[in-house]
Amino acid sequence: MKARVIFKGLALMLSLALLGYLFNTSDLGNSVNEAWIDARVRGHGINGALLFLLMGGIFTAIGLPRQIIAFLGGYAFSIGLGTVLGALAALLGCMLSFFYARFFGKGLLRARLGERAGRFDRFIHDHPFSMTVLIRLLPVGSNLLTNLAAGISSIRPAYFFSGTLLGYLPQTLVFALVGSGVHIAPALKLALAIGLFLISGLLGAYLYRRFRHGQSLDAQVDAALDEPLIPHHESSTPR
Questions:
Q1: Spatial CA neighbour of 52 closest among 84, 98, 11
Q2: Count of domains for the chain
């Protein structure tokens, strides 16, 4: 076995152990909340915004819900700025997990995610930007697994990241609206957020059915959308 492979395996295990230790000892999942926003972000200008981006990126990179970061973005800032910063924080998390997979994944993650990465490759091959937008519009599936599968696929980072950012915006707007202090009756604000969420999800589902061209992205996605999972040998020519 090559020394480089051994080094990557050890680095992967150590980095995962370190992330787990830091997450548990810092209580990150419980500390990133409204109280933390009030103490560290609100009223701290550019430093607060940068801290929000950093913590939001770490938070989403390890698989925790980006919707929470969007909610806190709306709580900390205006709807517009909260949406932008929430989407950028989620994009940063996407980039971290993507490059993490791309660095380690050729021989280590492929055993676990190789089939998923192959489906991802075939799904996005002809139109990587627009198909990435489509994937991100869907309100189902694992954000982290998509990032990791993309990292060991052949997609160019520029297409994946730009499509991801655009596809993130609708849901980020919804949760930033819910978290914001905008002066709208709570019931009306919730109804508006639900309506926007449904529109975004239905649009993503429609586009998925319309433009997947016989390819299946993910068994969980297909099941959630009541779409049949297309076996590999029955799908169209691999892309």
A1: 84
A2: 1
pTM for the full predicted model = 0.79
Least confident of 54-68, 99-113, 222-236: 222-236
170, part of any domain: yes
Let me know the angle formed at the C-alpha of 73 by 71 and 75, rounded to the nearest 5 degrees: 70
Q: Are 170 and 118 in contact (CB under 8 A)?
A: no
What letters, b where the CB count within 10 A reaches 16 and e where it falls short, cover 201-214? Answer: beebbebbeeebee
Residue 32: strand, helix, or coil = coil
Q: Evaluate if residue 238 carries a pLDDT over 50.
A: no
215 CB-near residues (< 8 Å, 6+ apart): 119, 122, 123, 230, 235, 236, 239
Contacts for 110-113: CB closer than 8 Å, 24+ residues apart: 110/152, 113/145, 113/148, 113/149, 113/152
